[in-house]
Amino acid sequence: MAREYAKHCPASPMKNSLLVTAAILLIIQAASCQRVRVETEVEAYPTESVDLRCQFVDGGNTKLTQVSWIWEPTEGQRDNIAVFHPTYGESFPESPFSGRVRFIKGTLTSPSITITSLKMADAGRYTCEYATYPSGNEQGTTNLVMLAKPKNSASPVVVQASTSGKPVVVAQCEAADSKPAATIKWMGAVGGTENTTSVKGPDGTVTVRSEYLIVPTPEDNGKEVTCIISQRTQDKPQTFPMKLAVEYPPTVSIVGYDNNWYIGRTDAVLTCQATGNPAPTTVTWTVMSGPMPDTVQINANKLIVRKVDEAVNTTFVCEVKNRLGVSKHQVTTAVIEQRKITAGPSTAGIIGGTIGVVLFLLAIVSAVIILVRKRKQNAVNGDGPPKHKPPPPVKAGSSTEMLNKPVTDSVLTETQPFSNVYYETSGEPVTDLDACDDDDDNTVGGGAANGGGPAVLEDSIQYADVDDTLNDEALPPYSDADDHHVDQPPSAAVARGESFVSAAMYV
Ligand SMILES: *[C@@H]1O[C@H](CO)[C@@H](O)[C@H](O)[C@H]1NC(C)=O
Ligand SMILES: *[C@@H]1O[C@H](CO)[C@@H](O)[C@H](O)[C@H]1NC(C)=O
């Protein structure tokens, strides 16, 4: 508490030094040559209490008649708050401290006081003033500094992905009613700007507010920013990590169409992948040509064709909604008479499989031949047949080192699992129809907003608008009118690698 005691009557050893120094020392001496000892500065907090200490030292022949505490809230104003007289005792004149001030000991040489239930407004200068004889009044002054801990808070601000390119407040942080004022800093990898303002309260405290602004994009959703509040009364800065909340309408794409829906194929699957914040709640599958064919089963975001026939020679549309909008994507499934085997990785696989089978057979045949030869050779060399029974030729194929190479090759040749792999992995959607987004071959690298190739007419118009503006705007404008939907380019969803299910993590 005590910063230092005011010096009393120092005997300066330096009076004979330089004139300037002497002059300064004289001034200090005049100011500090006091026999009234007080602390120069004391800090305290509201609602707590504080001791203001005062002592008269080196009395000598000086007669002390009375001591008073005088409060100076502002320059020039002097309020007597406590008086002690050796004969008449303690007195507390009417003041803002009535009932909150008392003498600790109540002696003339040690008239320290305690003030309780402190308020911010109690800050100011407190003078311990002695009436003495014969030298007159002597005094010492303590500065009471009222401190206030800040009430700290921080919160992200839910925003919608920007379509205007203007920065908006995405997080805010506040250090309220503190003294002295707090400082607020931000940390974050989203490259925002800060706007910090401070407002003085009537009691001398300060409220500091800071806002963090970015141009929000869907990608910023869930990213972290941290607000750091520092203030004199805190041991260490207080940090508030926050996750940004950026809402955006859904983006949707249908994956799984492999351009090979031949008549009779079973369990062909289309998957509608969507992201959005809030997470899309409804996924609706429709058929352009009319009612959903009987052979089709819908399971949430999956459309399963139990058996491919002419009825699914059509265009399937997946529509996804969240609070902010609707997004559609469509894929035209061209049913073909015959399974395609002329191109693509599938054909390579089948050919490879066939070769593998041939190699496997060759391997077995050669193994048998080699074994037979070896046995003959052994017989010629006189080694004689082994004591134990030689392995029968049938087993030889899996037990001798000579066969390892052909065997490993042939592992790949089982055609059944291979065809499964083919169905699952070569399922990048390829849509031929004009009415669809551009080739999904572009999905990985394609720019988001540019992904919309020639689409349904109304969509083309919207895309034209978007393309005229910023390229990096991930989201085209959307409308909640159902007939005015936006076909989101599939690239956004696919590039993030998020399935419909994982989109639900955005809350
Ligand atoms: C900063 O915040 C204050 C108070 O909220 C506001 O009046 C001011 O316009 C803001 N300045 C900027 C640059 O955003
Ligand atoms: C599918 O429709 C296209 C045109 O809409 C037609 O050319 C094609 O023959 C149809 N396929 C089958 C298997 O009916």
Describe the structure.
It is a single chain. By secondary structure, the chain is an alpha+beta fold. It has 4 domains: 32-146, Sandwich (Immunoglobulin-like); 151-244, Immunoglobulin-like; 250-336, Sandwich (Immunoglobulin-like); 399-486, no CATH class. Helix content is 19%, strand content 35%. The chain contains 8 helices and 28 strands. It has helices at 19-32, 344-381, 393-396, 404-411, 415-425, 457-468, 490-496, 500-503; strands at 36-38, 41-44, 50-52, 54-56, 63-72, 79-85, 89-91, 101-103, 113-115, 124-133, 136-146, 151-156, 159-160, 168-178, 183-188, 193-200, 206-214, 224-230, 238-243, 246-255, 261-262, 266-277, 282-287, 296-299, 302-307, 314-322, 325-333, 335-336. The strands form 8 sheets. A 6-stranded mixed beta sheet has the order 2-11-10-5-6-7, with no helix packed on it. Strands 13-20-22-25-24 form a 5-stranded mixed beta sheet. Strands 12-14-17-16 form a 4-stranded antiparallel beta sheet, with no helix packed on it. The longest helix has 38 residues, at 344-381. It is elongated, with a radius of gyration of 44 Å. The relative contact order is 0.09. Mean pLDDT is 73; it is low at 1-32 and 382-507. Bound molecules: 2-acetamido-2-deoxy-beta-D-glucopyranose (2 copies). One 2-acetamido-2-deoxy-beta-D-glucopyranose binds at residues 195, 197.
